[in-house]
Structure formats: structure tokens, C-alpha cells
Write a structure and sequence with these properties.
With 417 residues, this protein is α/β, with parallel strands linked by helices. Among the domains are: 129-288, Dihydrodipicolinate Reductase, domain 2, CATH 3.30.360.10; 330-413, ACT domain (Alpha-Beta Plaits), CATH 3.30.70.260. It contains 14 helices and 17 strands. The chain has helices at residues 5-16, 18-24, 54-57, 75-84, 94-111, 127-134, 149-160, 165-174, 183-186, 189-203, 222-231, 292-312, 349-359, 388-399; strands at 34-35, 49-50, 64-67, 88-91, 115-116, 139-146, 213-214, 233-244, 247-258, 270-278, 281-288, 334-344, 364-372, 376-383, 386-387, 404-407, 411-413. The strands form three sheets. Strands 6, 7, 8, 9, 10, 11, 12, 13, 14, 15, 16 and 17 form a twelve-stranded mixed β-sheet that branches. Strands 3-4-5 form a three-stranded parallel β-sheet, sandwiched between helices. A hairpin with a 3-residue loop joins strand 13 and strand 14. The longest helix has 21 residues, at 292-312. The chain is elongated, with a radius of gyration of 24 Å. Bound molecules: NADP nicotinamide-adenine-dinucleotide phosphate and L-homoserine (HSE).
Length: 417
Amino acid sequence: MGLGTVGRAFLRALAENRDDIGRRLAEPLEVTRILVRDPARHPEERHRLTTDARDILDDPEISVVVEVMGGREPARTYMLEALRRGKSVVTANKEVLAYAGPELWAAAEAGQADLRFEASVGGGIPVVQGLTQGLAADRVRSVVGIVNGTTNYILTRMTDEGSSFEQALAAAQAAGYAEADPTDDLDGHDAARKIAILASIAFGAHVSPDDVAVEGIRHVTAEDIRYGQGQGWRLKVVASARLEADGLLLRVGPAFLPQDHPLAGVSGAYNAILVEGEPVGQVMFFGPGAGGGPTASAVLGDVIEIAWGRHQGVSAPRPVRYRPCPLKDPATDELAAYWRLDVVDRPGTLAQVAQALSEASVSLRSVEQRPKPDGRATLLLVTHRCREGALRQAVANTGRLPVVLSMGPPIRVEGVD
Ligand code: NAP
Ligand code: HSE
């Protein structure tokens, strides 16, 4: 289902690796039907195209449905029906999986069919298998990663080449990394779905993307990035799930990382996921996080696993039993933050800003003032570590000052006290 960036790459990988796959499996894999919206766009595949999902769902010869259409509906409905009717499903669709995971697992159990979704997180990185199988014995404490290729590509181009945000986004879209609606990438929703999926696996709890505190990168400017570079920091969109004493803390947002942080050197459309658990310690999964080829590799790997399982007579899903897991309020978390304000450049401005922070019990670590035309100035502030709730109060206090013309949201800085 779907013949876009991923679907086309899947057919290519299947054709190119047919002999190797054939050697590993007892029966050949054959794609008999392909669902699209507009057949005129795919003349080379016209003999097996359909615009009617019933041609797949009602066909008893089809044992595996590969869903690479995207979007919540009708993908969810098709997957549920396929599973209930005993067809195994492989999907790259993090949106459906993150929101409808329990429903899909129930359908898989009812139909005794397999549900696999390696491609939904980290593109070609086998992180789902790594967590479900490789680290099955561990008590996971945290999963922290760069899980959106589009935003990592954009920030890398802005940092290394000085590209504008718009140029970098256009290049990411041309390369096939971005979602059909790039809002999902830019505003952090794609990463929120992925960290929700990883957290559900790692902590055995059903985590919804709505549980994740999300912030996007539209407000980030070249000046922010250059300032961070001057401090030895790299700006990344970090998705994290941490099990703390008072609950599970889930967030996605831009963060400055010190250059020696394991995630700081992850560039372009690459993704990396750092898992900390007992007894394993730290494990990092790294690889291409988006694009047709890497994603098709993960999808095809899942199909091969299912085909092998069927050959062995094992096609039932592992039962999923979620446990309750309280969520931690992000306002009680601590952070140091960088913050850019455009202000009126006149005596007393800095004192008013400092007062607004002080009233919220937020302490300044450093301040840099840069003169701008027309009697304005930019203040680049870095705070000491403080409660996120206190920082929000400082933002509210500062926003009320007439001398403050505009301000971006504070950006978390890791590795600073
Ligand atoms: P895409 O290029 O937009 O392709 C979507 C395909 O699905 C098109 O062939 C489209 O048909 C078909 N389609 C969409 N809605 C349909 C409907 N209602 N009925 C029938 N066909 C429909 O998308 P993509 O980039 O390949 O992504 C597919 C999925 O993989 C998404 O869930 C995405 O999040 C996920 N994913 C993508 C990447 C990546 O790097 N691209 C990586 C990991 C996961 P037409 O051709 O007729 O328009
Ligand atoms: N749009 C997604 C990204 C595709 O940029 O990471 C891979 O899931």
C-alpha cells in the first residue's frame, strides 16, 4: 500500500536482492498488488496497480501487507482489517503506530498475524529490534536520540554551510526525507511519535505522542546557531524519554549539546539513539534515519522475518502487556537555557531584564549584548540551571517589559550548570 519514496525503494531493493533473499527463504517474495491514489503517476507498474484496497484485503493469496502510504486514515483502518483477517502487516507509519498501537496489537492477536514496524523509527537503523530483542533483558533508564532526519539535515546545513532554513528544508524535501506535510518534522511531531514508540517498547508502557512535551525549530536563527558554535555547542533536535524517581519524562525539542556529547557529531539525515540500561550500560544505535533506501531496508527486513516465521510455522505476534507508568511534569525538570531577546538599547534595559529573571528565581550565567540598527540591541543570555517552571515564569515576566521588542523561546543547553 503506497508507491512513493519508500514504496519505490522497497520494490527496487526486492528486485536487486532477489537472489540473496531467495537463498534465505524457502518461498519467493512476490508483490502482486500495489495500492495508489493516482495510477497515471506510475505507468511502469500499471499491471499490478489498484486504487481499491479491497483488491488487497480480500485476496486470500496475499499473506503480508506492506503499508507505506502514510497518514492516519485510511492506513489505520486497512491495517486493522488486514491483521484481523490474519494478514501480517509491516509498516513505516509512525503516526498510526504511535496513536493506535494498542488497537493494532489487539487486532494482530485476534488474527494471529504479525505486526512489524522497524522502519517507523530511525529509518534503516535496527533500533526496534535492538530494544525488543537485543536489550530485552535490561531495565532501561533512558532513551535519548536524534530521530528526525529532516530537522537534523536542516540544522547541519545551517551550521556547516550557513544555508538558510528555507534552502535546507527544500533540499531535505528533494532528497525524500521530509513527511508529506513537513510541519510534522519542523514542529517536532514526527520525533514525538518516534520517541513515543521507543518509550512504549523500552518501558513497557503505552506512551502517546500527546504525552510528549514538544517544541519545533522554526524560531531558530542563524545567529542562535553561530552563538552556540562560539561556545563549542551544536544545536540538535533531541527526543528523550527518561525514567526518573517521580515518573517518565518525555520531551522533544532543540538543545545545544557540547561538542563531545555522543549525539553532537550525528550529522545530515543520520539518526542516533542512545539507550542507557541495567545491566548493559550505554548502547548507541546509529545510521541513516530517513530516505527511501534505508527505510526500504528496514521494511524488507521485517517482511523477510515474517516470511521466515511463516515457513517455520510461527506467525503469531508476541503478546503486548502494557504496565501503568506515571508521567513526570516537565515544569519540575531542571535545565540551563540560552535565550535571545531583541530590546530597546537604552539605559536600564539590561537591569529590567535581569530583574524579571530574578523575580522568577532564574540566575544569569552570561550576557552578551550586540548592537543592532535603529536603537535596538540583541541580548544573548545563558542561565544557570533552574526549574523549567521558573524559566517559564521568567519568560512571562520578560515578555511584559515594554523595552523587550521580541524574543525567541529559551533553548535548553546540556552540560552547563
Ligand atoms: P510518499 O512519497 O508521499 O508516498 C505515499 C504513497 O502512498 C504514494 O504512492 C501515494 O499514492 C500513496 N497513498 C497515499 N495515500 C493514499 C490513499 N489514501 N490511498 C491509496 N494510496 C495512497 O510517502 P513516503 O515518503 O514514501 O512515506 C511513506 C510512509 O513511510 C509514511 O508513513 C512515512 O512517515 C514513512 N517513512 C518515510 C520515510 C522517508 O524517509 N520518506 C522514512 C521512514 C518512514 P500516489 O502515488 O498515487 O500519490
Ligand atoms: N520525515 C522523517 C524524518 C522520515 O525526516 O526523519 C523518517 O522517519
